[in-house]
Request: fold
Amino acid sequence: MATQLIRVDPRVAERAHEARRREWEVLARDLCADRPVDDRFFPEIAADELLLHAEEDAFILRASGSTEEHRIDRQRLSPQLKEYLAVIEMLDDDYLPMQRAEVLDMAKRVVHDAAANLLSELLPSLNADHEHRRRLFSLLVALSADTTKKRMAHRHL
Reply:
């Protein structure tokens, strides 16, 4: 049994600009990295690939070539998405004092951790450790907002 991959649905990617598509590819590759060959995100789904896309009310992970899917309620994840985006917006300030930047970077990590914990609640069958849930949240952030011009969107100090 092969490792299950998650990537942004090509129908979503074709409507995005090149930088965004590249960012999604990198984040999806990071999400799937360091997983044992037989470690599947959703063991009950037979497909080896899950396509991610966003609707107004949910992020949807759909098995490639199937109707099997998992939905992530956007309203439940919205506070973490908004807070994360607000923090990275503040971190992008070129004149930010280093001490303030360190505090904001820590806040970003706290939000990231809280979102990873919430994802385990919203997706109870998700077979992923904390770090991979954090990576999934990073991909959801990039899917919900264009973070390609946000220097600190996916980096830490």
User: Anything to note?
Assistant: The beta strands are 5-8, 49-54, 58-63, 69-73. Helices lie at 10-13, 18-32, 74-91, 98-122, 130-144. The mean pLDDT is 90.
